[in-house]
Amino acid sequence: MTQAEREAILELLNSPQVTGPTRRALQERLDARFVREFFDETGFARLRAVATRLVPHDPAEIDLAGMVDHRLHAGSGDGWRYADAPPDGEAYRRLLRALPQAFETLAPEAQDAALQDVQSAHPRAFEDLLAELTEGFMAHPLTQYRFGYVGFADAQGWLHVGPGELEPWEEHHGPR
Amino acid sequence: MDRAERLPEDLDVLVIGTGAGGAPLLARLAAAGLKVAALEAGVRHPPEEIATDEVAQAGLFWMDERLSAGQDPVPFGRNNSGRGVGGSTLHYTAYTPRAQPDDLKLRTEFGVGEDWPLEFSELEPYYDELEYFLGVSGPAEYPWGPQRRRAYRHPPLPLNGAARLMQRACAEIGMRTSPAANAALSRSQEQPGYGTRHTCTNRGFCQAGCSVGAKASMDVTFLALAEAHGAQIVDGAQVTALTVQGGRMTGAEFLWNGQLHHLGARTVVLAAGAVETPRLLLLGGLANSSGQVGRNFMAHVGVQVWGQVEEDLRPYKGIPGGLISEDTHRLPGLVGGYLLQSLGVMPVTYATQYARGTLTWGPDLIEHLRGYTHVAGINVLGECLPYEHNFLELSDEPDARGLPKPRIHFSFGENEKKMTAHAEALMRDLWGRVGARDVWALPRAAHTLGTARMGHDPQTSVVDPFGRAHDLTGLWICDNSTFPSSLSVNPALTQMALSLRTADALTGDLKVRA
Ligand SMILES: Cc1cc2nc3c(=O)[nH]c(=O)nc-3n(C[C@H](O)[C@H](O)[C@H](O)COP(=O)(O)OP(=O)(O)OC[C@H]3O[C@@H](n4cnc5c(N)ncnc54)[C@H](O)[C@@H]3O)c2cc1C
Ligand code: SF4
């Protein structure tokens, strides 16, 4: 995240355009960093490598693997799981174990081929992990900024809702 | 009272759950002068604490793990049910179409499915009352169903991008559309027991909770009224067992502030939703001489079609379901039919559905999500028949409280598959007409219905047409579990109508006994 991006995000978040509860949630997420707790070191390195192939991102900006690790450690879930799949943590561990030795150091094409294999061998875990990473990615203020999303500017509401009708602050948030 | 500090005593009626089934009834009984209280597993979520952010609002949902089985496993959590003072209405989209009279007579019309043990004319006065009380915004003339006796209280909400596109495309093929009925305010309204509810600010996050009180969730409508009439709502109180003595209900056991408590009452209304209600009954082995508890689980056909258009559409703006068509209410070759709705969508919901639905990953995923502000959605809501193979049971896997997790089996039958295919083809055609690119479809099932069905016959149903348990004195059920058939409309308004109807029957019974 460049300094300019960070400033632009904080400028809108700290402005009166955003209500308190929304601001607090997004500010906390903008800077969220997690300490590894659930996976061992090798498993975590592997998870991080998988995460950056599935949902390309810079882990220094958005800590998606850390987010997954943190969630599993906390034992929280999303309210359901496929009845034929083991609990999330175990399912993810199995998926990671099924990858070839030294997956982290393979060339990107070889990594993708290996991921395709585990996708067919562990379809449920693959889908769940992909969805979880996608959620973390899309919910991050940096992604939202880069995609020109400004729906969190909720304080005054939207007057123009038809196709192509933008409010001034909608037009101006996001990269030029 | 903001938070119940002392538990109520000597109750006439104890209600378990405060959603679309539990709340209207709680208010009605309290207004009738009865001593009533509700136990609610979730906590209060006042509008001023609601963030416009899906992840921050995850606490509105029922996150205890459920196991999804069958050919078409149903996702729960954020997709299917709520937890909080107001239940699933805290995150419902506020769509409030009425059922049509023939929805209640599926077996008579088609020879399959089930008839409801009641007539449309018995629901109609409640619909009239509810639409006014909730402050439904809707069109002056609604093109489908019987002539209305009372106009919608407020004019329709503004149509957002997807709604305008659907309007244009449907016009091309001669399909009628109308601004939808939404239980969200296009003008502010004074709400008895609550105060002023403000006009909808078009922030499009209904499924993550309404921060201005515009949406008619139960907390800002019936529950506020119930408390004004002296009802007590104990939040953060999860019922773990129903208690019975000598063939009659005596109350419920629940976890509250980390401890097990008991509340006694002469009558108990179970309104915990179509998963937790059968779960509690099965746990206690109660009200099940018919063997129907947990059976006939239904979830509406809910296939969605998505595409990206040239215009900057901003799918997070405006009431999500602004436009409707019921021209597909009956279709040749199908049992029942469906309605068509335009769709706004929040970013994380869209992104995760796209990932799960298409299994796209890598740079292609990012490229697609980059186009989020150009996404246009449309979906249907259609009849789902009750089947032997769709049911809820207790698994042998314990949850954090040591109670067995529920396992829900769900597979579409032939009718649902045909309906999904029909709807998908229609919506792809419509989205082709608006020039949408990257069109993709997500076959889906929505809402949880039918696991403790109502009927006249104690051999084939769990409760009678008013919600009294056939088998157990003092137990009533009032939530989506009692639906004998799914209806081809969204369930919340009909659920609230049933709730008021049950309350009127219950007060009648209590008077007779007194
Ligand atoms: C995302 C979403 C959007 C929706 N949109 C619409 C819409 O636009 N229109 C429409 O008509 N319908 C919609 N619905 C469906 C609608 O919300 C439900 O039909 C309706 O709320 C069901 O009412 P209920 O009383 O059966 O259950 P709920 O409203 O879910 O209420 C059940 C309550 O019981 C509580 N409870 C459960 N177990 C216990 C226990 N053991 N102890 C104490 N409390 C307990 C729960 O916490 C919850 O508060 C939507 C649903 C979802 C998930
Ligand atoms: S769109 Fe309107 S009704 Fe829905 S949450 Fe926003 S303000 Fe409330």
TrEMBL record, chain A:
Domain of life: Bacteria
Name of the protein described by the UniProt record: Gluconate 2-dehydrogenase subunit 3 family protein
Organism: Deinococcus aerophilus
From TrEMBL, chain B:
Glucose-methanol-choline oxidoreductase N-terminal domain location: 82-301
Entries under InterPro entries matching the protein: FAD/NAD-bd_sf, GMC_OxRdtase_N, GMC_OxRtase_C
Family as reported in the entry's similarity comment: Belongs to the GMC oxidoreductase family.
Segments for region (Disordered): 72-91
Chain ranges of the Glucose-methanol-choline oxidoreductase C-terminal domain: 386-498
Gene3D superfamilies xref list: FAD/NAD(P)-binding domain
Originating organism: Deinococcus aerophilus
Protein name, UniProt field: Uncharacterized protein
Alphabetical UniProt keywords: FAD, Flavoprotein, Oxidoreductase
